[in-house]
Amino acid sequence: MTIKNVCCLGAGYVGGPTCSVIAYKCPNIKVTVADLSKERIAQWNSEKLPIYEPGLDKIVKECRGKNLFFSSDVQRAILDAELIFISVNTPTKNIGNGKGRAADLKYVEGAARLIAEVAKSDKIVVEKSTVPVKAADSIMKILRANQKQGISYQILSNPEFLAEGTAINDLLNADRVLIGGEETPEGQAAIEALCGIYENWIPKSKILTTNTWSSELSKLAANAMLAQRISSINSLSAVCEATGADISEVAKAIGCDTRIGAKFLQASIGFGGSCFQKDILNLVYICECLNLPEVAQYWQQVIDMNDFQKTRFTSKVIQSLFNTVSGKKICILGFAFKKNTGDTRESPAIHVANTLLDEGACIHIYDPKVEESQIFEDLSHRQNIFVYQDAYSATQGCHAIVICTEWDEFMILDFNKIYEGMMKPSYIFDGRKILDHEALIQIGFQVQTIGRKL
Ligand code: NAD
Ligand code: UGA
């Protein structure tokens, strides 16, 4: 079966970029990205896209109106499509059973019910959202219980592995594409149909097909293992600070071992982003439900270590500033959870800023891509927060600078000029290890960083 018409429910960080790349690489397929939020769709149809992602603008401009459409007419999009991606949000539940840990599947269920209500022809429904193992079973039950005569459904799992800030490159040059489905002839045919889309640009050898449950679990496992590396290196950063070892040297030494590998060993103020924490909590919850408390505790430690790192870093800032920041001006450089994105979900900068505000500090914030309104939405305080449009005015008159995001532009700032405008002694806390610490000390700064005693 050759797919000609695809739709995606959810025009977020995953649905938008993923479907833009499908449209870009498959000119013969009509791709419609549909969302219940009219506002989000209007942004996708405007000059200023709702998300910042390097390379995305160019692709959207090239395909929009040709074979890529953004629409709030979700029903129409479902009716016309042969294959439907479900790319809706799956946040952590905040009420009821599993509160604070289990994934809330209400949006996935909502999407499945909508498909069941609207569909008038056969559909391949592809779970792209990150979900607990066995979620495809629930989607299948909803679809088949509401099945109209003559219509058949196939459910596939096709988790997304893109990282924000590098999404377009990750999609164009994916390490692998994973597709799970039923082991029946119909299930295999559906897998083949989805493979046919990706084969337009991904080598066949990189398209892995598995059973549905392996595919669902692999997504949670990949995020858990990635986050575990960060927690491991961050735990060692505390040992470095206490002993005089340098975490960058340690990371390099261990990363040279090809069995360990050099990537994802950057010590930091802790990982952020919408997924690592939520997906590990989800894994922990699944393990508890499966009566595997030891496995649950093992993965919980990855989160606990991340919380420890965030708290440890912020405590260090306060202790260094004579144990009081009350009335002091502290500049936070970077508010996004990583560079090259405007996304602030679970950003460690939020923890740092809220703690300093709790202690009575006045916070100056500059981030190249985060909107002022977003910063105010994220913080629990309303006062003593000032947002600036550049790093020089943000640091003016401050007692300390805290680097929370590793934006490239922070590395080339004129720190001589910044030093002149600051209160003395002037402190820099480099939570991302991106600055030249010796040069800063030469200028006169008091410098602290992660994983190295200065
Ligand atoms: P998001 O919040 O940015 O976008 C989800 C969108 O779905 C929202 O715009 C919402 O309005 C829409 N929506 C909800 N119900 C709908 C429905 N019934 N019909 C149409 N639209 C509906 O979320 P996201 O960051 O794109 O994440 C989506 C999923 O992908 C999550 O499960 C996440 O874990 C996973 N994921 C995210 C990333 C990432 O980098 N953000 C990477 C890999 C996987
Ligand atoms: C992560 C995964 O990398 C993706 O493969 C996955 O698809 C995605 O989650 C998801 O499921 O949402 P993302 O959160 O966008 O992607 O970004 P990462 O590059 O993984 O960074 C996550 C956090 O870890 C950031 O705060 C980053 O600064 C931090 N990090 C990353 C470190 O502290 N050290 C590192 O070495 C790497």
Set down the secondary structure blueprint:
Layout: E1 5-9, H1 15-25, E2 30-34, H2 38-44, H3 56-63, E3 68-71, H4 74-80, E4 83-86, H5 106-118, E5 123-127, H6 135-145, E6 153-157, H7 167-172, E7 177-181, H8 185-198, E8 207-211, H9 212-243, H10 247-255, H11 276-289, H12 293-320, E9 329-333, H13 348-358, E10 362-366, H14 372-378, E11 385-387, H15 391-395, E12 400-403, H16 415-420, E13 427-430, H17 437-443, E14 446-449
Parallel strand pairs: 1-2, 1-4, 2-3, 4-5, 5-6, 7-8, 9-10, 9-12, 10-11, 12-13, 13-14
Helix pairs in contact: 1-3, 5-6, 9-11, 9-12, 11-12, 12-13
The structure holds nicotinamide-adenine-dinucleotide and uridine-5'-diphosphate-glucuronic acid.
Q: Can you walk through the features of this model?
A:
With 454 residues, this protein is α/β, with parallel strands linked by helices. It folds into two domains: 5-202, Rossmann fold (3-Layer(aba) Sandwich); 212-454, Rossmann fold (3-Layer(aba) Sandwich), CATH 3.40.50.720. 43% of the residues lie in helices and 14% in strands. The chain contains 17 helices and 14 strands. It has helices spanning 15-25, 38-44, 56-63, 74-80, 106-118, 135-145, 167-172, 185-198, 212-243, 247-255, 276-289, 293-320, 348-358, 372-378, 391-395, 415-420, 437-443; strands at 5-9, 30-34, 68-71, 83-86, 123-127, 153-157, 177-181, 207-211, 329-333, 362-366, 385-387, 400-403, 427-430, 446-449. It has a six-stranded parallel beta sheet, sandwiched between helices. It has a six-stranded parallel beta sheet with strand order 11-10-9-12-13-14, with helices on both faces. A two-stranded parallel sheet has the order 7-8. Helix 11 (276-289) packs antiparallel against helix 12. It is globular, with a radius of gyration of 24 Å. It starts with a strand and ends in a 5-residue tail after the last strand. Residues 130, 160-164, 223, 226, 230, 264-266, 268, 271-273, 275-276, 337-338 line the site of uridine-5'-diphosphate-glucuronic acid. One of its GO terms (cellular component) is nucleus. Keywords: NAD, Oxidoreductase. It catalyses: UDP-alpha-D-glucose + 2 NAD(+) + H2O = UDP-alpha-D-glucuronate + 2 NADH + 3 H(+). Pathway: Nucleotide-sugar biosynthesis; UDP-alpha-D-glucuronate biosynthesis; UDP-alpha-D-glucuronate from UDP-alpha-D-glucose: step 1/1.
